[in-house]
TrEMBL record, chain A:
Record bears the keyword Nucleotide-binding: no
Pfam families: BPD_transp_2
GO cellular component: plasma membrane
Signal peptide: none
Name of the protein this chain belongs to: Amino acid/amide ABC transporter membrane protein 2, HAAT family (TC 3.A.1.4.-)
UniProt keywords, alphabetically: Cell membrane, Membrane, Transmembrane, Transmembrane helix
Ribonucleoprotein among keywords: no
TM stretches of this protein: 21-38, 95-117, 124-142, 172-191, 256-282, 302-323
Subcellular location(s) per record: Cell membrane
Membrane topology of this protein: Multi-pass membrane protein
InterPro entries for the chain: ABC_transp_permease, LivM-like
Automatic annotation (TrEMBL), chain B:
Pfam families reported for this sequence: BPD_transp_2
GO molecular function, one term: transmembrane transporter activity
Any one cellular-component term (Gene Ontology): plasma membrane
Superkingdom of the organism of origin: Bacteria
UniProt keyword list: Amino-acid transport, Cell membrane, Membrane, Transmembrane, Transmembrane helix, Transport
Residues forming coiled coils: none
Membrane-protein topology: Multi-pass membrane protein
InterPro entries linked to this entry: ABC_transp_permease, BCAA_transport_permease
Family: Belongs to the binding-protein-dependent transport system permease family. LivHM subfamily.
Protein name, entry field: Amino acid/amide ABC transporter membrane protein 1, HAAT family (TC 3.A.1.4.-)
Gene Ontology BP annotations: amino acid transport
Localization of this protein: Cell membrane
Species of origin: Microvirga guangxiensis
Transmembrane segments: 6-29, 36-57, 63-85, 97-118, 138-161, 193-215, 221-251, 263-284
Length: 346, 292
């Protein structure tokens, strides 16, 4: 049972973390994230960085799709814009990485606003299809513009902090995890502000929201800009992580991946974006492990990995939508509810 | 400018466009009856090509026995998919259903790769190979016969939609589900029927597409072009699918031969954005009026 939650002010009622237990859990999470690189092997640090990048991007998509109700299948392409911005700045200008990441976010936000303009006239599926078109056009630009290095793409030097090259996952970890944590926290706070609440109003009924005095186009474009900013910074971190950016790095299937991640995690919840992105990033790795164990019995198990991955990916989307449409976040809520009501309802 | 060349390219484009139109009709059938945007149509088409390949090369059937069996398999797949995946999603937001079909497409693509491997395959030759000339212009025989068969199938589908009992029931359901139901139409069966008809059509189209260009697990990309076709034509309009199919085929062929192969998708998707800006509901689509 949940006790000791007496609120004496609106500020306390609106607080992001309202009990001591939550603060303790948060502190423990922070501590374990700090200790993680000292105990985990390089593979797990690599995975943690990848998960964090995907969490950042999925959270951005969640702002747009989960909270504003505008479905986008262009998230991966927007990440590409961010990655290319970072790569170009790093190789041609040589500005420090913080400025590069911010520039990547800003650049992508601008591109996102341009491709968000159709959202004035179309919504729902039509918008999803317009964003597919956007990602096709961006892919074409990446592979045909001299600045982006054509189909060969760009390779870039590692990020450096005070003369120290961040070239290994265990060094980059200290860049990627804090930035992601900051972004997730920012997103969680966004929905306690006027802008964030306007997003939710538009999702629930856009015409009613307009009647309430929310400027539709402006707010929708703000949502696009914020979401693309997240995608851009995530793409920038991606570029520092892999240090090679090619047009093929950001295919349409990755956009579907991010949409699937927030569906599996739970649309319209911050926790959903985190859980979903983590889950969807780790599933292929688990599959790889399982296939690895099967190798002694099934001789060509490794060649089966790619199709099995595709099947599991599709089955997860379909299964979650049919059986658990609120996603992993809802499962988590159910567990919490059980303990909240524990002695009374068993 | 070489007019003969342009004419030949246009003819090839229209031939390819006929296949887009055929698949587009399958797409529209599903959308009309169930309001589901089926992004898996490209993968169902691919599966049709592979089933045909399996029946001919694996089971050793003759080509003319394999084609009806492939179409039957398509109908069966449609029935299963509608029953197992689409019916439970009834009443959910269109986006969720749309994502279910994306997931379905991923499953189908994975299954095909698991069964037949990732390498492209060639279907056995069964289309006559004598060159065809229209006036002076040369048309590749495969494309010409493919377009001919597609045109016949479209005509058949249109006739069925216009005159057959099932077709009338489908149109009635599309117009007003409640009214159709109270007139004694089994709306659930119409849903099944539309999926079966559409998937059978798509599987048939898959055989033709595969015969022209070979089959591979990435053939589902065809579905993206079909998506452009139906958006340009209007999601719920058969006429739109026909005009859109021919238009997109033409645009792709012209862009492909005058600008280069990589401009094909760019041209069609730019056209898509343009149409979405000017007429979001497509050339012939119904403009939905929103009520509060």
């Amino acid at each position: 049972m949940r006790i000791g939650t007496l609120k004496l002010s609106y500020a306390a009622d609106e607080a992001l973390f309202d009990t001591k237990v939550q603060w303790i859990c948060l502190a423990l999470l922070g501590l374990s994230l700090i200790l993680f690189p000292f105990v985990a092997g390089p593979y797990w640090i690599y995975m943690a960085c990848l998960v964090a990048i995907n969490v950042a991007s999925a959270t951005g998509l969640n702002i747009l799709t989960g909270y504003t109700g505008l479905v986008s299948l262009g998230q991966a392409a927007f990440m590409g814009v961010g990655a290319y911005t970072v790569a170009v700045l790093e190789t041609r200008v040589g500005t420090p990485f913080i400025i590069n990441l911010l520039a990547a976010g800003g650049m992508t936000a601008a591109v996102g606003v341009v491709f968000g303009i159709p959202s004035l006239r179309v919504k729902g599926l039509y918008l999803a299809i317009a964003t597919i078109a956007a990602s096709m056009i961006l892919h074409f630009v990446f592979s045909h513009w001299d600045l982006t290095g054509g189909t060969r793409g760009l390779s870039m030097p590692p990020a450096s902090l005070f003369g120290l090259a961040l070239d290994q996952p265990h060094k980059l970890y200290w860049l990627i995890i804090p930035v992601t944590a900051l972004m997730v926290l920012g997103a969680a706070n966004l929905f306690r502000t006027r802008i964030g609440r306007a997003f939710i109003a538009i999702r629930d009924r856009d015409i009613s929201a307009e009647v309430l005095g929310i400027p539709l186009l402006q707010t929708k474009l703000t949502s696009f800009a914020l979401s693309s900013f997240y995608a851009g910074v995530a793409g920038g971190m991606w570029a520092y992580f892999f240090r090679v950016v090619t047009p093929e790095s950001f295919p349409l299937i990755n956009s579907i991946f991010y949409l699937a991640a927030i569906i599996v995690g739970g649309m319209g919840t911050i926790l959903g974006g985190i859980l979903g992105a983590t889950f969807m990033t780790l599933v292929p790795e688990v599959l790889k492990l399982v296939v690895g164990w099967l190798t002694p019995w099934v001789p060509d198990a490794l060649s089966l990995l790619a199709p099995i991955r595709t099947i599991v990916f599709g089955a997860l989307i379909v299964g979650f939508l049919i059986f658990e449409p609120q996603g992993l976040a809802e499962i988590w809520q159910r567990i919490r509810r059980f303990f909240h009501l524990w002695p009374f309802r068993t | 400018m070489d007019w003969l060349y342009i004419f030949e390219v246009s003819l090839a484009g229209l031939g390819a466009g006929a296949l887009y139109a055929l698949t587009g009709v399958a797409f529209v059938l599903i959308y009309k009856a169930t309001r589901v945007v089926n992004l898996a149509i490209g993968e169902i088409l691919m599966l049709g090509g592979y089933v045909f390949f399996g029946l001919v090369a694996g089971a050793g059937l003759s080509v003319w026995a394999a084609i009806p069996l492939t179409i039957l398999a398509g109908a069966g797949l449609g029935a299963v998919v509608e029953r197992a995946l689409i019916r439970p999603m009834l009443g959910e937001s269109p986006i969720s259903v749309f994502m279910v079909t994306i997931g379905l497409g991923s499953i189908l693509a994975g299954l095909v790769e698991l069964g037949w491997g990732a390498d492209p395959l060639r279907l056995p030759e069964f289309i006559p190979n004598t060159p065809i000339f229209l006036g002076e212009a040369y048309v590749a025989p495969k494309v010409a016969y493919g377009a001919l068969v597609a045109a016949l199938l479209i005509a058949g589908a249109l006739a069925a939609l216009r005159f057959s009992r099932g077709g009338v029931a489908l149109r009635a359901t599309a117009r007003d589900q409640g009214a159709a139901y109270s007139m004694g139409i089994d709306v659930g069966r119409v849903f099944s029927l539309s999926w079966m008809a559409a998937c059978a059509t798509a599987a048939g189209a898959g055989v033709i597409v595969g015969a022209i260009g070979g089959i591979s697990p990435t053939m589902g990309i065809f579905g993206l072009s079909v998506l452009v076709v139906v958006i340009v034509g209007g999601l719920d309009s058969v006429a739109g699918a026909l005009v859109g199919g021919l238009l997109i085929g033409l645009v792709e062929a012209l862009a492909g031969s005058f600008l280069g192969g990589e401009y094909k998708l760019l041209a069609t998707f730019s056209l898509l954005i343009l149409i979405l800006m000017i007429r979001p509901y497509g050339i012939f689509g119904t403009h939905e009026i929103e009520r509060l």
